[in-house]
Amino acid sequence: MDAIYVGIDVSKDRLDVHTLPQGEAFMVARNGEGVAQLVERLKGLSPALIALEATGGFETVVAAALAAARLPVVVVNPAQVRHFAQALGQRAKTDPIDAAVIARFAQATQPAARPLPDEMTQLLADLVARRRQIVEMMAAEGQRERRADKRLKKSIARLRKALEKELAELDGEIDEYMRGTPAWVEKQDLLASVPGVGPVIARTLIAELPELGALDRRRIAALAGLAPYTRQSGQWRGKSFIGGGRKTVRSMLFLGAMVAARHNPVLKAFRDKLVDSGKPKIVALIAVARKLLTILNAIIRDAKPWRTQNA
Predict the structure, then answer these.
(1) Which residue in 299, 300, 301, 285 sits closest to 250, CA to CA?
(2) What are the residue ranges spanned by the domains of the chain?
(3) Of 85, 99, 186, 223, which has the highest C-beta tally within 10 A?
(4) Which architecture characterizes domain 5-109 according to CATH?
(5) Measured between alpha carbons, how far is 252 from 95 in angstroms, rounded to an integer?
(6) CA atoms of 236 and 5, how far apart (whole Å)
(7) Bridge partners of 75?
(8) Model confidence over 204-225: pLDDT tens digits?
(9) Is pLDDT at 299 greater than 50 in this prediction?
């Protein structure tokens, strides 16, 4: 029998489903009853893979329910699906059409199904995400303060004070949560043993890159959006680029790379060598971030803290 691939387009109120090779399409409500119906119907098909797009959190409950039923589910990058649709010449866009495109994408690329993070890891990811949102709000208020008059500056100051208090409480909650989970404490200590990696970077990687230590350096770089790709055609040779992957993880690795390029002797020497050979500074920074990720991946894999020979 042909392997069955399922694409699900997730919206606020409904789930549009498409199966291949049957070409069957159906819809259920995105509520408890609808998700239960979806699980039972897909269990009867024994699909090889079920793919959903990441849609701002609407997909989380659906993916969790499918994973809990031991169905092979993967949450795919919407940008990759859009590029796939463009390659197919698919310009029309409706929820049922999107579900069909996602199914074809899963069938063609067969991305690896990964289990969702467990409940505790998901909670940590939510806490880290909330902390990031508050930091962004504080930065936005700081930008407004530069252009505000005296009356508005008082309002901004009050809000920033409230945000700072909330940030401190969140940091305390994250600290308490980490201390209550020995495995995370061990991981954080391993990651923070690398000069340039602090607690915030370590916690973000634990929460949002749970594959760290379980994949090879190329695949982990691809997940973080640090794997280079080159544009070329015939005799024309383009430049290499990075992109895709998990933006938050990549941003944290860039922060770590900027610190490591100054204070980590191994990565500082690596960066200086690239710059001295004529590489642009931004290219050198990207290379440092990728090398830093490779080092962190090996440290978690081997459960051994930083040593210069790790590099």
Answers:
(1) 285
(2) 5-109, 206-310
(3) 99
(4) 2-Layer Sandwich (3.30)
(5) 34
(6) 38
(7) 52
(8) 898 888 888 888 888 888 888 8
(9) yes
